[in-house]
Amino acid sequence: MPTTPPLAFVYDRCATRSHAMLELRLAGCRTYAERQGWDVAGWWVDFGDEALGGERPELRELVGALGRVVMARRAFCLVHHWNRFAHDVEGRLALRRRIARVGGYSATTFGESDEREGDAGEARVPAAQVGRQGPT
Questions:
Q1: What is the CA radius of gyration of the chain?
Q2: Coil, helix or strand at residue 130
Q3: Dihedrals phi, psi of 3, to nearest 5 degrees
Q4: Would you give per-residue pLDDT tens digits along the chain (136 residues)?
Q5: pTM
Q6: 7: part of which helix (H) or strand (E)?
Q7: What one-character DSSP code corresponds to residue 113?
Q8: Closest to 9 in 3D by CA, of 87, 85, 83, 91
Q9: Three-class secondary structure of residue 108 per DSSP
């Protein structure tokens, strides 16, 4: 019996006025999802200042929608690259944990996924990379 492919919830953020790179990343997500045979639930993008802070209203909406679907179907957040969540490791993990808490997982168009890593990949991040590093 064929299995139902997971449902991709695409997320990105754009703090600049130019959306050229955003459009390329989203096209990359679309192409990657098609190649994998995944259905796309929708597209969530935070813009401007909302793309920089921890609140991320569009990501919050994505997490809510994903949480409502994940009971009936495997679902995950697809980003072009992990830094689409945040450039710093702590921020990235915090946002990926939001998805994990509702039963989803996160993946990139580079074939990376935290699906089998428990709480958003904590075990994969060496302790030396977490937090601010003082001068050496």
A1: 15
A2: coil
A3: -95, 150
A4: 568 999 999 999 999 999 999 999 999 999 999 999 999 999 999 999 999 988 999 999 999 999 999 999 999 999 999 999 999 999 999 999 999 999 999 999 999 999 987 544 443 333 223 333 333 3
A5: 0.84
A6: strand 7-14
A7: B
A8: 85
A9: strand
Q: Max alpha carbon distance in the chain (Å)?
A: 58
Instruction: Report the distance separating Cα 28 and Cα 23, nearest Å.
Output: 9
What number of CA atoms fall less than 13 Å from residue 84's CA on the CB side?
27
| Helix residue spans in 1-136 (DSSP H) | 20-36, 57-69, 89-101
**Can you give the length of the chain in residues?**
136
Structure tokens at 118: 């428990």
User: What string of DSSP letters covers 44-71?
Assistant: EEEEGGGGTSS--HHHHHHHHHHHHHTT
Pairing status of strand 105-108 against strand 7-14: unpaired
Torsion angle in degrees (nearest 10) through CA of 59, 64, 68, 73: 20
Residue showing tokens 């098609």: 34
